[in-house]
Amino acid sequence: MTTAVIVDAVRTPSGKGKPGGQLSGVHPAALLSHVLSALVARTDIDPGVVDDVIGGCVGQAGEQALNIARSAVLGAGYPEHVPATTVDRQCGSSQQAAHFAAQGVIARAYDVAIACGVESMSRVPMGTSPMGRDAAGPLVAARYPEGLVNQGISAELLAARWKLDRETLDEYSARSHARAASTAAAGGFDAEIVAVEVDGVARGVDETVRPSTTAEGLAGLKASFRDPELGARFPEIDWRITPGNSSPLTDGASAVLIMSEERAAALGLRPRARFHTFAVTGSDPMLMLDGVIPATRRALDRSGLSIGDIDAYEVNEAFAPVPLLWQREFGADPERLNPRGGAIALGHPLGASGTRLLTTLLNHLEATGGRYGLQTMCEGAGMSNATIIERL
C-alpha cells in the first residue's frame, strides 16, 4: 500500500479576530496564499507537481466565498492547471482536508497534494454564512423539537455533566497560556510560523497568547452564554464558560505538504512523518463537543495502539471542558495533552485549526523524539475527526 507522508507543515501566527487584530488587514485569500507560497519556498518544489489543493474554511461567505482555496492557489502564483477545492466540516475542516489529501495519495489518485485552511474571523465574522436564514431546515427541527443549542451551551452542558467546576476550567486555561508562552520564549514555534508582512511590519508572533494569564485573573470574568430561558431548560448549568476558558476569535492560515513516499524520494525530499490512522464520526448534536471521545476510540481501535503508546495528544481547546473530559475518559497523561498550549492560547481560526494542530504536533514530536501523535477536535452539529501520525 502507498504510504502518505508529510514533507512540510507551516502556519501563520495567530491574529485577534477583530478589527485592529494584527492580521485583520490581510484578505483571507491572501493569508492562505502566504502559507502555500511558504511551502514552495521552504521545500523548493515546483508547484506544478501538486495534483490538488484541499482547503478548509467554515465561513464561506463574502471574502471567503467562491472556493477560497482556488483563489489562494492563483494568488500564490501556482500554475493554472493546479486545482483546488474548499471543504467545510466545521472546526475540523482542514483536518478533514488532510484526511482527503492523504487518502488520495494512499489511493494513488494523487502523488502530491496540499491540505490547508484559513479563517479570517475579523473580516468574515462567525455566523455570517447562513445570511440570517435557517440552515438546518424543517426536518432537523422536527427531529429535535426542543431545539438545538449553540456550542457555548453545549460546553456548559458538558462541564455540568462531567462535573468540571469553574476553578478547574480556569486552571486548565491558564496552563494553556503558560505552555504556549514558554514554547514561544524558547523558540519552539520558530520552525512552524511563517511571518506575515502587514504594512511593512513582519508579524511572526501569536497575538492571542497572554503570558501573564492566571487562574485567579480568569476567575473574575463573567459567563459568556448566560440565558434565563436555557437555564430553566437545563437546570444543571451554572454558567462556567467565559471568554477566558474558551478559544478566542482568531485570524490565521496553515498548510501541510503531503505526498507519496516514492514521490518524496524522487524529489529528494525527506518525509517528516507518515499518516498512520484516520477516523471520523458523528455524535449527539445537542452535546456536540464530546465527539472527540468516540473519534479517538475509533482511531485507537483501528491503529492497534493504546493511549499509552501515543507520545503527544492535540485535543482542540474550543472550550476547556473538551480536552478535560477527553483526558478523564482515556486516563491520558496531562503532560502529553496539548504540551505547547492549545487553542485557548494559540487561537482557533476555524478552518485553519486542523492543519495548525497537525503542524504543531509534528514539530513537538520532532523536538522531543516522540514517535506517535494523535489529534482530534470537536465539530459543529456533533462530529469529530481523529488522526494519528508517526514521526519518521
TrEMBL record:
Enzyme active site: 91, 348, 378
Domain Thiolase N-terminal: 5-262
Source taxon at top rank: Bacteria
EC primary class: transferase
Source organism of the structure: Nocardia aurantia
Keyword S-adenosyl-L-methionine listed: no
Keywords for the protein's UniProt record, in alphabetical order: Acyltransferase, Transferase
UniProt name for this protein: 3-ketoacyl-CoA thiolase
Tagged with keyword Transferase: yes
InterPro entries, per database record: Thiolase, Thiolase-like, Thiolase_C, Thiolase_CS, Thiolase_N
Family recorded in the similarity comment: Belongs to the thiolase-like superfamily. Thiolase family.
Domain Thiolase C-terminal: 270-391
